[in-house]
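Supplementary Methods. Inverse-folding protocol.

Structures were first reduced to a discrete structure-token string of length 436. This string, shown here, constituted the complete conditioning input.
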């Protein structure tokens, strides 16, 4: 057989020249897809085992292949493995090393398989693990929100609409809102973990393979619920990547709303919260500053997470079936959202657990903002039978009066309020203080 020394050993049979440097650079994904080395080795071991079981290769050949793959795993773990851009991706880097180790029999591993079903399988396994990891991290942050909900169940703060003091609530209820947002994020991750769990392996390049493979065996061995029935779909579907990106972006988005609140609450003007030294930074010019950088970065990283989702959907739009190399652009956004969201979940936990909540300032602010005005209007409706619109109007007049006097609603005299509506009684004071 003619051996073209210059061409790629893995696919270069018909090639006489090697790729140009830039071609090599644009083509290579090893810089990022080496993150999937565990999944690639696991997938190849399952495939080789199945090939032997189906007598497509011999038992002895499978043993050599599996032993070699296990040795490669050791090399990668210990940092002895040399990743080469000339070998494009993680799949060919590992297979090429296998050939160095065990010789030509390594070439039998790729029987009845293509990199197209191989990469889809590896990537699904990686994303599945990341999903379970994130479920654990979300649950861990929920424990923090649970503790804050209990601890601050009676600590009054102003609830806001339009960022204007609206009605008194408790800090516990506010924290509990985030627990519920995370509960939905978690349930999205859990639903997704079910949907992603069908195995592409065995679809080969796109049209399946003439060998008597056992797709149920490999699917089961790799922890999937079963094979993907349509082979074109198996190698070209990346909606799982887009879905993972949406779910992670949405979770980041929920966290960024709290990040924004923390940033506002930490201003001296609000003074609701003080971040610990270990979760804030100073300014190199203004000695008085203590900046909520971690919260700002949770807010900021949401921008890149949203961007990654748009990137993936843009790559997928209009791609004809089945595999196209564009799909190699699927991994970086997914890895990046996983990394970014993991950091955000952990930073939020650290910030919240070490922060000091100034509940006295919150109470004070709730009292200053006439936040019981709605309760006053409701009292007028329920006790005097006023239509709500009239009660609203009367309450407005009472608030104006308190404003003019520079006092809180519960510091007004009964006589003052009776000037607005003579039927008002002393009972009104039951609803005027925020504590009530
Ligand atoms: N590195 C490629 C990717 O990430 C692997 C699949 C390559 N397949 C192919 N037919 N060239 O998508």
């Amino acid at each position: 057989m003619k051996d073209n020394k210059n061409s790629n050993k893995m696919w270069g049979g018909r090639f006489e020249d090697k790729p140009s440097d830039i071609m090599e650079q644009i083509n290579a994904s090893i810089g990022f897809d080496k993150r999937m080395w565990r999944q690639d080795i696991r997938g190849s071991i399952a495939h080789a085992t199945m090939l032997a079981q189906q007598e497509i290769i011999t038992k002895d050949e499978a043993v050599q292949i599996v032993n070699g793959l296990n040795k490669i795993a050791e090399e990668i773990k210990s940092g002895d493995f040399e990743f080469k851009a000339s070998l494009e991706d993680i799949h060919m880097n590992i297979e090429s090393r296998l050939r160095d180790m065990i010789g030509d029999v390594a070439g039998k591993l790729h029987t009845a398989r293509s990199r197209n079903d191989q990469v889809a399988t590896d990537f699904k396994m990686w994303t599945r693990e990341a999903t379970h990891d994130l479920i654990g991290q979300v649950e861990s942050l929920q424990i923090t929100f649970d503790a804050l909900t209990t601890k601050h169940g009676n600590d009054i703060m102003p609830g806001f609409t339009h960022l204007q003091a609206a009605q008194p609530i408790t800090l516990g209820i506010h924290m509990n809102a985030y627990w519920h947002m995370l509960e939905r994020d978690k349930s999205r991750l859990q639903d997704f973990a079910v949907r992603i769990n069908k195995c592409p392996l065995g679809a080969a390049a796109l049209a399946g393979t003439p060998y008597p493979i056992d797709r149920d065996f490999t699917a089961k061995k790799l922890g999937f619920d079963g094979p993907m029935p349509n082979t074109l779909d198996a190698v070209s579907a990346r909606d799982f990547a887009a879905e993972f990106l949406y779910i992670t972006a949405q979770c980041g988005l929920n966290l960024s709303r709290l990040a924004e609140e923390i940033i506002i609450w930490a201003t001296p003007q609000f003074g609701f919260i003080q971040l610990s030294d270990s979760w804030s930074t100073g300014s190199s010019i203004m000695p008085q500053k203590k900046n909520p950088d971690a919260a700002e970065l949770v807010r900021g990283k949401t921008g890149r997470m949203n961007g990654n989702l748009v990137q993936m959907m843009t790559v997928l739009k209009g791609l004809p079936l089945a595999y196209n190399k564009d799909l190699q652009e699927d991994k970086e956004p997914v890895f990046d959202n996983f990394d970014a969201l993991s950091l955000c979940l952990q930073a939020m936990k650290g910030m919240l657990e070490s922060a000091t909540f100034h509940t006295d300032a919150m109470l004070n602010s709730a009292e200053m903002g006439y936040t019981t005005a709605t309760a006053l209007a409701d009292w007028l409706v329920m006790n005097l039978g006023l239509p709500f619109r009239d009660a609203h109007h009367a309450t407005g007049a009472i608030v104006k009066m308190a404003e003019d006097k520079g006092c809180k609603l519960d510091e007004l005299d009964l006589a003052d309020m009776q000037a607005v509506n003579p039927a008002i009684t002393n009972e009104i004071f039951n609803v005027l203080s925020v504590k009530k």
